[in-house]
Amino acid sequence: MLDQIQGLHHVTSMARDARTNNRFFTDTLGLRRVKKTVNFDAPDVYHLYYADEFGTPGSVMTYFPFPNIGKGRPGAGEVGTTAFSVPQGSLDWWAIRLADKGAAPVEAQETFGEKRLFFRGPDGEGFALVETAGDDRAPWTGGGVGEDTAIRGFHSVALRLREGAQTAELLTFMGYRPVDSSGAVTRFAIPDGNGADVVDIETLPGTPFAGLGAGSVHHVAFAVEDRAKQLEVRKAIADTGYQVTPVIDRDYFWAIYFRTPGGVLFEVSTNEPGFARDEDQAHLGEALKLPTQHAHLRDYLEKNLVPLES
Fold first, then answer.
1. What is the 8-class DSSP label of residue 282?
2. CA angle (156, 158, 161) in 5-degree steps
């Protein structure tokens, strides 16, 4: 069993409209945009990062907004719900805010003894706000949401799978432990993790497989402290038979990727070097930052990428 993984690092999804996506996360949810860059493989498309003040691993929601992308088809083999942690007693406030910002309908739920609000993003993606006791992660309050209600970071992701046993075995190997179950859902958690500690597996036999598109989660990333720990994880996972990519420099972290038995793409990312490596902490996410290989496209991209604020 591995002990290097600390919990979630980031979740990356697909969207259709960059401006709508930016407004939803910075205004409706009150997160900070910590990086405005472009897709490594499609530089005419933004890669937008939203998080707490510092872009702390375990708080980072990222998006590829493809202007002409079709709508995703929900199903098995994907992340069905991305959940954020909020303070206890804040859900009534959030229910009003989400309704006022046009994110209704909002559904009050209780799962594994935790109160939550389920709602959908602009592209139909599933989100939840979960009241979490004792989450002492510092929130970003510069987005108009007060400290007593602001998002602390991720709570969990929920995987929808046709068959969950092999992915459960993988998570256990990665250091997660089964902590509870309810109906078709089994909950796994990292002991003493980074706060974004939970992965749920919902087993849905016979469900058609999901189709990737706007509103779909592209991949979910797990956090390790540094490149040395990442290499240890890479070797261990590869030794079990998974096809793991070489280490890839993503500017703000190093990444490896592999496909899980249930079809979800997993990434393992380093906490280093972080989002302040190429701009001042006070101005994260303001300027367009380009990977070195796309620096020669700056003039074209600055003219053709849609402005995020209007």
1. G
2. 155
Tokens 């987005």: give the residue.
Answer: 143
Token pair, residue 13, equals 């999804």
- Output the domain CATH number for residue 265: 3.10.180.10
Query: Which amino acid would we find at residue 271?
Result: N
Cβ neighbour number for residue 112 with a 10 Å cutoff: 15
The total of structural domains in the chain comes to: 1
Domain that holds residue 67: 8-304
Per-residue pLDDT of the chain (310 residues), as tens digits, is 999 999 999 999 999 999 999 999 999 999 999 999 999 999 999 999 999 999 999 999 999 999 999 999 999 999 999 999 999 999 999 999 999 999 889 999 999 999 999 999 999 999 999 999 999 999 999 999 999 999 999 999 999 999 999 999 999 999 999 999 999 999 999 999 999 999 999 999 999 999 999 999 999 999 999 999 999 999 999 999 999 999 999 999 999 999 999 999 999 999 999 999 999 999 999 999 999 999 999 999 999 999 998 6
Output the pTM of the full model.
0.97
